[in-house]
Amino acid sequence: MKFQKLYNNAPVFIQSLMISGYNYLAYKKRYGKHYPNYLRQYKENRNLSIDQLEKDQSRRYTEFVNATMKHSPFYSTLFKNIIDPTHLDNIRELPIVDKEILRQNLADVHTITKEEAVVSKTGGTTGKSLEVYFTKNDMQERFGMLDAFRASHGYKLGKRTAWFSGKTLLTARDIRKKRFWKQDFLYNVMYYSTFHIQSRTSLAYLNNLIKFEPEFIVGFPSSILDIANFGLQNNIDFPPNTVSAIFPTAENVDDHTREILEKFFKTKVYDQYASSEGAPFIMECANQNLHLELQSGVFEVLDDNNKPAKEGRLIVTSFTTHGTPLIRYDIGDRIKLSDDRCSCGNNNPLVEKILGRSNDFLYVPEIGKINLGNLSNTLKDVNGVVRFQVVQNTLDTLEIYVQRDEVQYTKKDAVTFVENLRERVGNSMELNINYIDEIPREHSGKYRMIKNNCVHLIA
What we know:
seven-stranded antiparallel sheet, 23% strand
């Protein structure tokens, strides 16, 4: 509280120094003595054969489960009656652990104390937050892996970066002066608030972005999309050859979002998937194909009957979660695997699409579940929609909230929008279209396209 009061009352320059100091202490944990070795290792290992990747995955799985059973009372009890739980071939004999089971047993899941740990809290968008513990070694390996991915697209720590995340850094004075960003001078990062992006503030954001000249943009894609849409709608030309790559975080990137971001910023989007709990990584290569990173863990895709499937629930075992182990953890997301091979040199298996949260779906009795990936294409051939959100409170009605540009959004666009919705949800649902000035974000600063409030009604 004293620090926050001091920060709020400090001049802007001092606030920036305080942010730099805070990041310096945090980065000492992320970029400690083991980090350079992990960064080098994952850069060198990007072209391993599939046989080498699978052998390394099997070895790491055995080591990880052995260590977990030795140090975690929860897992040692859970696996005590399973024959050879440390062998990857037997993974399907192990129980699946969901978020609620993990939460209820956290004290016995943890293998280290809070004082030893790098603490991470998951978002509470779809339930209560979790507090998970990482060992310093695991945290440094995760950042080594992540930075090796970004380095393959030109990034290096210290290069000029614009960051859109859920950090709460602004004061009332900043908002009055339409100053929606804070700078970390030490690491060359400009942090932009994702809580204040609206049509009336977007020009201030965009002018500062152009002035800052970021080489990389990182953060919530829905927030970056707001800025790009505003720029396109107002015929603002973002300077070419400025941004080398955009790295989305925390949200899914649909085809429409990718198209707009790449068009406005004149660059490429390279996506990656992980989680606050420490899920293994899925990363996008130079060909913009998503790869399962087998060196980071085990990925299972299961249908509703827990049978292996090409599309379904994602169950993960993560090798970088020794402090709060994740073994056969139902992360709450869905993905679709691909049978294709990639020519980029990375031999990890491909993911066709990350479909989003398992409860980010609509339910139509005559059709069944309609997931986020299907709904996101509703804007095809529709102009003037800044964003939209679908809220389902009953099984027969959908509330559609549309944030539009009143100049570009024509009657023809309105008709096409509804037609595209009907293609996805059928004709039995009642659609209530509501035009509003701004679609509110979640407390985390994220934006949700689907809010299903009647999951409990679905058999």
